[in-house]
């Protein structure tokens, strides 16, 4: 009976029937920490990638993860599993991402985009808090509307002439740990 009700094979013999998660909207009324670190993930719809990103962000002490307007239908369980529960612990908001950038800028945050063009290498960039980091998906990257709102671009150095991009989850983990390193000093 359980097999008919679950997705995946690792249910452990226990399930709970729950409704789709509802994530709060980010608004001007949302309390932002004075010296915080938040991330917008733009253009990623793969719940596994979002979950892996949420896990890395939570481990690095990020205060919030902002997603564009909604999660794909039915993605909650995959997001929770792939984040090892971190998606339930980090402040997860949905928002129009351009509006989210405006809210964070108004609160005094610096906004950095993970982008190769005209970028500073991450370990040489100033990633001190308060910081909002914008990371794009592998297919589309960051929208031009968001790129135009950023204060500067930051990139991850490669050891080869590789012209592709890392997965969103890998890039998120590398950049989040660089933020953690720079703010631990």
Low-confidence stretches are none
Structural class: alpha/beta
Using only CA atoms, what is the Rg?
17 Å
Spatially, the strands of the biggest sheet line up as 3-2-1-6-4-7-5
Distance between the termini: 53 Å
Q: Count the strands?
A: 7
Determine the mean pLDDT. 87
Q: What is the helix fraction of residues, given as a range?
A: 25-40%
What general form does the structure show? globular
Order of helices and strands: HEHEHEHEEEHEH
What's the total helix number?
A: 6
What fraction of residues sit in β-strands? 15-25%
Q: What kind of sheet is the major sheet?
A: 7 strands, parallel
Commentary on this structure:
With about 180 residues, the protein is α/β, with parallel strands linked by helices. The protein has six helices and seven strands; from the N terminus they run H-E-H-E-H-E-H-E-E-E-H-E-H. The chain has helices at about 1-5, 45-60, 75-80, 95-105, 145, 170-185; strands spanning about 35-40, 65-70, 90-95, 110-115, 120, 130-135, 150-155. It has a seven-stranded parallel β-sheet with strand order 3-2-1-6-4-7-5, sandwiched between helices. Helix 2 (about 45-60) links the parallel strand 1 (about 35-40) and strand 2. The protein is globular and about 55 Å long. The termini are far apart. The model has no long low-confidence stretch (mean pLDDT about 85).
